TrEMBL record, chain A:
GO terms for cellular component: RNA polymerase III complex. Residues 13-71 form the RNA polymerase III subunit RPC82-related helix-turn-helix domain. Its main location: nucleus. This is DNA-directed RNA polymerase III subunit RPC3. It comes from Didymosphaeria variabile. DNA-dependent RNA polymerase catalyzes the transcription of DNA into RNA using the four ribonucleoside triphosphates as substrates. Specific core component of RNA polymerase III which synthesizes small RNAs, such as 5S rRNA and tRNAs.
From TrEMBL, chain B:
It is found in: Nucleus. InterPro entries: RNA_pol_Rpc34, RNA_pol_Rpc34-like, WH-like_DNA-bd_sf, WH_DNA-bd_sf. This is DNA-directed RNA polymerase III subunit RPC6. Keywords: DNA-directed RNA polymerase, Nucleus, Transcription.
Length: 637, 366
């Protein structure tokens, strides 16, 4: 089973909450059956739930539309359904995704992406119809909703805000799309940057199905369908399977040949030749019967993996801001953003299998895609008008600008960063980058002259460690954090060695080891020296495994998120009556007119409470991302 | 001197007393020799030439007799340095005690004496002396009760009793380095030392930059022109609106912040050890390079220092607005009953007292 697809009961509970909140009770009922019983057929779902057949169909349609369930390939006689945990959990990130897109592009793109999120997947034609409904009384577009202008999640009136958009946005004119062309170019841009991908049937394959298909392909191509026997061939098969999986997946990311915006609209007939075939066999793309452009058949959805990439960048930038300086953080942000386009996901889900022989293990190689030029960063910093001299040693600035520094570190001739020459700017940026290089977290690595590289994989591990340490630090004390670090550095230790490393007495350490063991961050081990098991004749080792601590913390965080959702439900329940009153159509919008002062206060308080809880939920999601999404399982030596 | 003490010992009682002139005469003259030697600084090693130069013995033969006499009374401890015999004085009271020992006891004493400040383990003693375990135990006890030897718990091997002479101070291998006191880490001392070293490292690797270090006036000409125009016209022109200025965090001129030096000379372990010794912080103890490394590594674990390269350390900049993570900042992350909290039962999200306090709302009574 794939690593990300492993679920825990607590995750099932969390996701059921999320589904219920977003898509209503029916979908949640079907979801919870699947969550509890695992992969199963329709008949079994109906047996396990008290739902009628049509209700189940409806629920499954919603879940399928949102990519929350996998189903077996259409070639199979019986269809099995299974939950896509990764996608289900990412419901909590909808608001974040919209926010990221707005930050990177503009409000219009954010509007498009948040509509895509609400709709699940959609064909470009449907999306267009949703934005620009045909004037004659034709049927309403996708999911019967006019989306242009109204921010789908933003229509939060009073109480029943869905989770994703805690804060409702005011409507602005700059959110409204002007023409279908604009929509197309936005969609194209989003696809090029990897935020939106094509829908393919393979996306509905569960990990096992995907594996089987990739395996069958490999067998058919290489061995004519027969299963190879030799060890070498088996290794080769394993490699081919992974390669096939990667190939299937990478096809989704391909940017289709849009009939370019540069060409005139009457060239559409030629454009269709260039369009790549949609993998989904066009089954979802119901093209309208009027002036349609060739990309109308394209079925698109939001790339769930891209959000993690953006979250990783955001997290790294905030770390730099916390630990180095504001200005360095901004430069780092520029650097990471420039890489973002070429990074579709945080880590490779389908790496080549590990060689059995440890010596054959390929050397770790830096990824050439993650290299940036100092000059580009300097240029960009100039454009956004960053005061790049800040956050540096004045002596360094003085050296670069041929200036002098007084004794107390004040420049004798103040330097205006906007008046620096290109060369000076590059050097100052280099000085910032060297701060990043020197940091123990190795935010960047020197690659070549004027070039720096980001080694995300190496950093991801330290980030996990960092978060575990943070948790321990916040709960306990520096001593506990010291203990974890000591164990991380030295491996398994007995009490005496541990005290030596930490330079503290055994009495101080013992209690903390106990606490951490109970919390599940540290394990103890007893190795008998004789064949009897006697405390005196055994070695007692204390050890710390990042992977275990990581899973424990992840589990706890899921639980914390569940509690927050439950608390929101409870808080809402408390003022249920008031909310239903405030949501009445005549009251909504005229609250001050119809509601009493106490009611208004209660309403305000509820909004504050909800916002606080949702914010915390999102912050816990940041932690989940660090723990789960930035690198695969860590192997313990 | 120190090298002499490490020289292998040979029980030299070879000073043959062939002819014994008047016994009292020898004793008194030997005492004179002892007194003469005692005038020298404590712990001096005496070679034959030193003893001759004291001019107490008339000739070499007599000197041999004198020395033999003193050795027999345990007042001189015979040693050998590079094949040459030499001697050290023993205090009179100890010599007195030694004279009363039984041979086995004396043998044990000699072995323990040899081990010097390192001490010797009782099992090793048994192996060296070929005595039975109960005998060894018995005599070790009696030696201890006579205040001749002491037992010390070894730091390296905590369940071994190491024996060494009473007047010696156990070596660092046995009693631990400068950071330890009676076999345990002296946390107060370590804290102070860490602070001193932390300050020293910070001084060398960081620089404090005041808020006004680069007090430039923004020379944004365009903005200035637009501003002036707006003032003159009274109505701002849309086209000449100021370009969006990037957000600058407010600069407090009095605030200063710590910044890592560019190209600093990172302090070395040896240099820091010398520094700590030079300020005489640890009275009577010297810090070796390895002790300093231990302290620095501990400070890295503690989070006050960070490693730049294998041997270079620098200060960790103070973290601006410490936030932990979403989980521990919420009530659940610090909840003492988190593991007992469930969907239903006495402890749930609905009845949670911590949520109520955090959100300033009320919870259900359980």
């Amino acid at each position: 089973m794939s690593y990300t697809q492993r679920e825990t009961p607590i995750l099932a509970e969390l996701c059921t909450f999320l589904v219920e909140d977003m898509y209503g009770e029916l979908a949640a009922r079907v979801f919870s059956v699947l969550a509890r019983f695992g992969r199963q057929r329709r008949a079994e779902i109906s047996k396990a739930s008290y739902l009628t057949s049509s209700q189940i169909s409806l629920g499954l349609v919603i879940l399928t539309q949102q990519h929350l369930v996998f189903h077996s390939p259409s070639t199979e006689p019986i269809v099995f359904y299974d939950i896509d945990w990764q996608q289900s959990y990412s419901l909590v990130r909808h608001a974040k995704i919209a926010h990221f897109v707005e930050e990177r592009f503009d409000k219009k793109s954010a509007n498009v992406i948040s509509n895509l999120l609400t709709l699940g997947h959609t064909s470009v034609a449907d999306l267009r119809k949703a934005y620009f409904p045909p004037s004659q009384g034709q049927e309403e577009a996708v999911n019967g909703k006019k989306v242009n202008g109204t921010k789908t999640n933003g229509d939060a009136s009073n109480g029943d805000t869905s989770l994703v958009n805690g804060s409702s946005h005011d409507e602005h004119d700059d959110e409204v799309l002007g023409s279908p062309e604009e929509l197309y170019s936005i969609v194209q841009n989003l696809i090029e940057h990897g935020w939106v991908i094509q829908v393919a049937e393979a996306q509905y394959l569960s990990a096992e199905d995907m594996h089987n298909i990739a395996r069958q392909q490999a067998l058919n191509n290489e061995w004519g369908g027969a299963v190879p026997t030799g060890t070498k061939d088996k290794d080769r098969l394993a490699h081919l399977i992974m390669a096939n999986k990667r190939r299937i997946r990478d096809a989704w990311l391909e940017v289709p040949n849009f009939s370019s915006r540069k060409r005139k609209a009457n060239d559409f007939d030629h454009g269709s030749n260039k369009r790549t075939k949609v993998n989904g066999q066009g089954q979802y793309g119901s093209a309208g019967g009027f002036d349609h452009s060739p990309e109308d058949d394209l079925v698109i959805r939001v790339n769930p993996e891209k959000a993690a990439v953006a979250m990783r960048n955001q997290h790294l930038v905030s770390l730099v801001e916390q630990r180095i300086s504001y200005t360095t953080a901004r430069l780092y942000e520029i650097l990471l953003r420039s890489l973002e386009k070429s990074i579709p996901r945080c880590f490779e889900d389908y790496p080549d299998p590990f060689p059995a022989n440890i010596e054959d293990q390929p050397q770790w190689e830096p990824n050439p895609d993650h290299v940036v030029n100092t000059k580009d960063i300097a240029q960009r910093a100039k454009i956004i008008g960053l005061d790049i001299c800040n956050g540096l040693d004045p002596n360094a600035v003085a050296r670069i600008t041929k200036n002098t520094v007084s004794k107390d570190g004040v420049l004798s001739q103040p330097v205006d960063p906007s008046s620096l020459s290109f060369h000076e700017r590059s050097e100052i940026v280099e000085a910032h980058l060297s701060l990043l290089v020197d940091h123990p977290l190795r935010f960047v690595t020197w690659h070549a002259r004027g070039q720096y590289r980001v080694d995300f994989d190496l950093m991801a591990k330290s980030l996990i460690q960092q978060e575990i340490e943070n948790t321990v630090l916040a709960r306990k004390s520096t001593v506990a954090m010291k203990l974890l670090r000591a164990l991380k550095k030295k491996g398994k230790l007995d009490e005496r060695q541990l005290c030596n490393t930490m330079m503290s007495s055994a009495n101080d350490v013992r209690g903390i080891v106990n606490d951490l063991t109970v919390q599940g961050f540290v394990q103890t081990q007893e190795i008998p020296k004789v064949d009897r098991r006697e405390a005196k004749l055994s070695m007692h080792l204390i050890w710390y495994d990042v992977q275990r601590a990581r899973e424990k913390l992840l589990h706890d965080t899921y639980k914390g998120q569940v509690r927050i959702l439950q608390r929101i439900a409870f808080e809402r329940e408390k003022i249920e009556e008031l909310l239903s009153k405030a949501n009445r159509t005549d009251v909504a919008g005229n609250e001050t007119k119809y509601l009493k002062q106490t009611e208004l206060d209660d309403l305000k308080k509820w909004k504050e409470v909800q916002e606080k809880l949702l914010l915390q939920l999102a912050r816990e999601d940041d932690l989940v991302a660090v723990l789960r999404d930035y690198c695969g399982p860590l192997l313990t030596a | 001197m120190a090298s002499a003490s490490t020289a292998p010992l040979e029980p030299v009682s070879k000073a043959e007393d062939a002819v014994a002139p008047a016994a009292e005469d020898i004793t008194s003259r030997a005492d004179m020799l002892y007194e003469e030697c005692a005038k020298r600084p404590e712990g001096t090693t005496f070679f034959q030439r030193d003893l001759t130069s004291m001019q107490i013995a008339r000739d070499l033969n007599e000197l041999l007799n004198l020395v033999g006499d003193l050795s027999n009374r345990h007042l001189l401890k015979p040693l050998q340095f590079e094949g040459e015999p030499c001697w050290k004085l023993r205090p009179k009271d100890i010599a007195e005690k030694l004279r009363r020992l039984v041979p086995d006891e004396r043998l044990l004493y000699q072995h323990i004496d040899n081990a010097h400040t390192e001490g010797v383990w009782s099992k090793a003693l048994r192996a060296k002396t070929n005595l039975a375990q109960p005998t060894v135990t018995k005599y070790l006890k009696s030696l201890e009760s006579k205040d001749l030897i002491q037992a010390v718990m070894s730091v390296k091997t905590p369940n071994r009793k190491m024996y060494l002479l009473k007047h010696l101070k156990p070596s660092e291998d046995v009693a631990g380095g400068p950071w330890q006191n009676e076999g345990d880490f002296d946390s107060a001392l370590i804290e102070v030392a860490a602070k001193v070293i932390g300050n020293k490292v910070q001084e060398e690797t960081c620089i404090r930059v005041s808020g006004t270090w680069n007090n430039y006036a923004s020379s944004d000409r365009q903005a200035a022109i637009a501003h002036k125009k707006a003032q003159v016209k009274g109505v701002p022109d849309i086209e000449e609106a100021l370009p969006v200025q990037p957000y600058h965090p407010p600069v407090d001129p009095s605030a200063s912040r710590l910044v890592h030096r560019s190209n600093p000379f990172y302090p070395t372990t040896l240099g820091l050890a010398k520094y700590l010794n030079s300020i005489q912080l640890l009275r009577g103890k010297t810090v070796r390079e390895s002790d300093m490394e231990q302290l620095l590594e501990m400070m890295v674990l503690e989070g006050t220092l960070e490693k730049v390269t294998a041997t270079a350390y620098r200060t960790v900049l103070p973290i601006s607005d410490q936030k932990y993570n979403g989980f521990v900042d919420a009530p659940c992350g610090n909840c003492p009953v988190f593991d007992l909290c469930s969907d239903e039962g006495p402890i749930t999200a609905r009845t949670c007292a911590y949520f109520a306090e955090w959100l300033d709302t009320t919870s259900e009574e359980p």
